[in-house]
């Protein structure tokens, strides 16, 4: 029933790693203007306080309740744009990296709904800042791999170990042990420095420094999302406090 | 002569890709409070308008004048913290990725100066937003390599081609042809989709869509910094406008 000219616009906005002031200025302004905000479970209450005026809809996949299927999120997005002018789809981290953006963009395009994407701070960069460990280092590291494991049936069963100087595994809590085992078997040094960052940028952030050998031997105990950063670039500087 | 308690604090702040509202809320607030801002050539005048009250010092390596050596930047950083309370080192993109942060952090730590790092939107994510092409895609791409070539004498001469699903080459203007040639010789498809993004997020942004074959055959003509994104995830969606 809605004519194209009467539909709203959807903004896919990266919330960043968690801290409310690590969203972009553009993203914060859109939250303040939004009529409807559909948000992930990784989005913090502090962040949602920026859009107190909006109708807030949780579509989180980690909430206690049954998770919203992606097709349901797609339908909600289209329906929201048909009844409101400014719809924000607020995604943890950056929308275009490990965010299932492709499926949401396809749905919006098929429905002829206008949209715009606002990038967010991805956790790897926030974790580099928190740990004070640059991901690249002159003469040591000039390539960085961002990757994740998957248990989805349509993905390859094995986690490939990328051939880069610095490796960053997202959602690496359970999978990091296996990654470390594979890296050791492929000749990476047991002494390779590893940083584990749980709940990056939040008040309950936890940082641990281990070696690749230790990572292979002990399961990572964590309740929140864990980012695993591996490589020579992670080696502690001589005067560093942490 | 300065006692530790009398020195200021240095904030390494990511400016993001260029647009003034793609800095984080935290970064923008620090710019407004800064006494001194040392900024890169990639930082835009719009961004510097956020810190009109501050003493602004250009340490850009791309300016028309002779570029500031890294050791000179390090000295300036330390001296600035010895005469001002809030010093912002404003770096294009994110400070911890291709930003020579390691050298600046070493200098600050050696001088006993307190610092904090504020992440920024790295160009790869802003380019994914501009081009509307997610870097990862379910069943297609779940690893992303961020890399750069180097002509520095202490770096390996050859650009390694990372083994990831999506490849993003920073400062890829001149080097991208060579990268494409090497990828073709290693069996990547000539038809592989490639997005070229020049002056990402700025008013003079230019987006071009080519194939790996075309990238290998024609030099990229550009005046500004070019980001090159390669991989099946870059394939145009069926209903996409661009």
From TrEMBL, chains A, B:
<dbReference type="InterPro" id="IPR000878">
    <property type="entry name" value="4pyrrol_Mease"/>
</dbReference>
<keyword id="KW-0627">Porphyrin biosynthesis</keyword>
<keyword id="KW-0949">S-adenosyl-L-methionine</keyword>
<dbReference type="Pfam" id="PF00590">
    <property type="entry name" value="TP_methylase"/>
</dbReference>
<dbReference type="InterPro" id="IPR035996">
    <property type="entry name" value="4pyrrol_Methylase_sf"/>
</dbReference>
<comment type="similarity">
    <text>Belongs to the precorrin methyltransferase family.</text>
</comment>
<dbReference type="GO" id="GO:0019354">
    <property type="term" value="P:siroheme biosynthetic process"/>
</dbReference>
<dbReference type="InterPro" id="IPR050161">
    <property type="entry name" value="Siro_Cobalamin_biosynth"/>
</dbReference>
<dbReference type="GO" id="GO:0032259">
    <property type="term" value="P:methylation"/>
</dbReference>
<dbReference type="InterPro" id="IPR006366">
    <property type="entry name" value="CobA/CysG_C"/>
</dbReference>
<feature type="domain" description="Tetrapyrrole methylase">
    <location>
        <begin position="9"/>
        <end position="216"/>
    </location>
</feature>
<dbReference type="InterPro" id="IPR003043">
    <property type="entry name" value="Uropor_MeTrfase_CS"/>
</dbReference>
<dbReference type="GO" id="GO:0004851">
    <property type="term" value="F:uroporphyrin-III C-methyltransferase activity"/>
</dbReference>
<dbReference type="InterPro" id="IPR014776">
    <property type="entry name" value="4pyrrole_Mease_sub2"/>
</dbReference>
<protein>
    <recommendedName>
        <fullName>uroporphyrinogen-III C-methyltransferase</fullName>
        <ecNumber>2.1.1.107</ecNumber>
    </recommendedName>
</protein>
<keyword id="KW-0489">Methyltransferase</keyword>
<dbReference type="InterPro" id="IPR014777">
    <property type="entry name" value="4pyrrole_Mease_sub1"/>
</dbReference>
<keyword id="KW-0808">Transferase</keyword>
<comment type="pathway">
    <text>Porphyrin-containing compound metabolism; siroheme biosynthesis; precorrin-2 from uroporphyrinogen III: step 1/1.</text>
</comment>
């Amino acid at each position: 029933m809605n004519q194209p000219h009467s539909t709203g616009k959807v903004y896919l906005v990266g919330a960043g790693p968690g801290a409310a002031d690590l969203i972009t200025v553009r993203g914060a302004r859109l939250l303040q203007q939004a009529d409807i905000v559909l948000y992930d479970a990784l989005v913090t209450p502090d962040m949602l306080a920026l859009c107190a005026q909006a109708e807030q809809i949780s579509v989180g996949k980690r909430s206690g309740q049954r998770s919203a299927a992606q097709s349901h999120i797609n339908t909600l997005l289209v329906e929201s744009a048909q009844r409101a002018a400014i719809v924000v789809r607020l995604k943890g981290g950056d929308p275009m990296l490990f965010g299932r953006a492709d499926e949401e963009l396809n749905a919006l395009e098929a429905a002829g709904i206008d949209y715009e994407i606002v990038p967010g701070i991805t956790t790897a960069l926030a974790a580099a800042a928190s740990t004070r460990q640059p991901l690249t280092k002159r003469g040591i590291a000039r390539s960085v791999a961002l990757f994740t494991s998957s248990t989805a049936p349509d993905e390859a069963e094995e986690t490939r170990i990328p051939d880069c100087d610095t490796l960053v595994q997202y959602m690496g809590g359970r999978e990091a042990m296996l990654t470390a085992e594979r890296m050791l078997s492929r000749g990476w040094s047991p002494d390779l420095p590893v940083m584990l960052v749980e709940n990056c940028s939040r008040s309950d952030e936890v940082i641990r420094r281990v070696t690749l050998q230790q990572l292979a031997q002990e399961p990572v105990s964590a309740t929140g999302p864990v980012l695993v950063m591996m490589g020579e670039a992670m080696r502690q500087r001589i005067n560093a406090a942490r």
